[in-house]
Amino acid sequence: KECSVYDTFLPQVLVNVGRSFDEERSNFFAPRKGIYSFNFHVVKVYNRQTIQVSLMHNGWPVISAFAGDQDVTREAASNGVLIQMEKGDRAYLKLERGNLMGGWKYSTFSGFLVFPL
Fold it and tell me: Which residues form the C1q domain (predicted)?
């Protein structure tokens, strides 16, 4: 599978209890109303471009992470947040800027319910 500059594709799902993560679209859908924790860690490999990755909630950016050092062969960017979500709300990663060029195999994304409302 390929991804455009706007979409991300996570090639391997390690844990998907409750099947809230849509593996085809690499989107997390809230199974119920509550407070959710999201964390991501992205890696760019042999890439001199600055990257910006945002965590999106229903199409709106919530947090971003940047990696822009031109003098290293590998660089990582991470961030995390708590979000109040309604049942069916969507969370996903969006590559806003740059190119990960193979870095997705070293990158992670996780989301889980912290507190039901």
Answer: 1-117
> Looking at the DSSP assignment, which residues form a beta bridge with residue 52?
66, 97
Residue identified by tokens 């979000």 is 83
Tell me the pTM: 0.84
- The CATH number of residue 60's host domain is 2.60.120.40
Q: 17 in helix, strand or coil?
A: helix
Question: 31 lies in which domain range?
Answer: 17-116
Q: What is the pLDDT of residues 9-65, one digit of tens each?
A: 566 778 888 889 888 888 999 999 999 999 999 888 777 788 899 999 999 999 999
